[in-house]
Amino acid sequence: MAEAEPLEMAYISEVILKKRKHKEESIALTRKTQLELGQHGGKKRKVEDIKRPEQLVREFRERELDFIRMKQRTKRAKSALSTPNSKLLFVIRLHGKNDMHPKTRKILYNLRLTRIFHGVFLKASPGVLELLQKVEPYVTYGYPNVKNVSCLIYKKGYGKIDNKRVPLIDNNIIEQALGKHGILCLEDIVHEVANGGPRFRETLNFLGPFSLNKPKEGLQGKKALFKDGGDTGNRENQINDLIDKMN
């Protein structure tokens, strides 16, 4: 009986073999990366990042309680709102994360206080004071002096041009943005803000929020009003002491 002839192996060129090996190595490396970072290449979730049901319930109750308290604060008589001692306010956000109701967060965002330890200048008016009353547990405010207005703008100030942050290191930038309003340099900005001038709104629209440093001392970590031994609410002229510690 004749022996079966051995089958000949198909010839595969060396180039194709190298490409195949490279592709297999690439797939293996990609798969390893996906396993390390998660199936879709995102950050690997930690166990502590996953919220328990009781934590979600607690955060929901805190947000609803915040909304109830906000409505209670707005029911105060308008006479309870302090008469402003100055045209200018400086407002600093101190608190607020998961315990805020969406309406509270929206007011803070409308005031451009999107982050903790951000500060903004506002023109004192009954409408502004009413808004601040609604978000009182999360902010502190008062009447900055000219020295601190100047110091904040020179040290922490930046402008916004085409939605981009621009450092105020060149008066040409200021003239380009505000020259049509007669504001040509940093000193003009300080004067307009400190005195609540006729182009106050345009100047503030150009200036971004001030990113302040967390003070090493001076905060109690309490949402109680400043007059009651806490951190929040109206500090009047004592806001200048806090600005000095955060600037």
From TrEMBL:
Molecular-function annotations in GO:
RNA binding; structural constituent of ribosome
Residue ranges of the TM segments: none
Kindly name one Pfam family recorded for this protein.
Answer: Ribosomal_L30
Superkingdom of origin: Eukaryota
Its GO biological process annotations read: maturation of LSU-rRNA from tricistronic rRNA transcript (SSU-rRNA, 5.8S rRNA, LSU-rRNA)
Question: Which residue numbers delimit the Large ribosomal subunit protein uL30-like ferredoxin-like fold domain?
Answer: 89-139
Give the UniProt entry's GO cellular component terms: cytosolic large ribosomal subunit
InterPro entries the record matches: Ribo_uL30_ferredoxin-like_sf (IPR036919), Ribosomal_uL30 (IPR039699), Ribosomal_uL30_CS (IPR018038), Ribosomal_uL30_euk (IPR005998), Ribosomal_uL30_euk_arc (IPR035808), Ribosomal_uL30_ferredoxin-like (IPR016082)
SUPFAM superfamilies named among the record's database cross-references: Ribosomal protein L30p/L7e
Which keywords, in A-to-Z order, does the entry hold? Ribonucleoprotein, Ribosomal protein
Q: Which family does it belong to?
A: Belongs to the universal ribosomal protein uL30 family.
Which protein, by its recorded name, is this? Answer: Large ribosomal subunit protein uL30-like ferredoxin-like fold domain-containing protein
- Species, as recorded: Salix dunnii
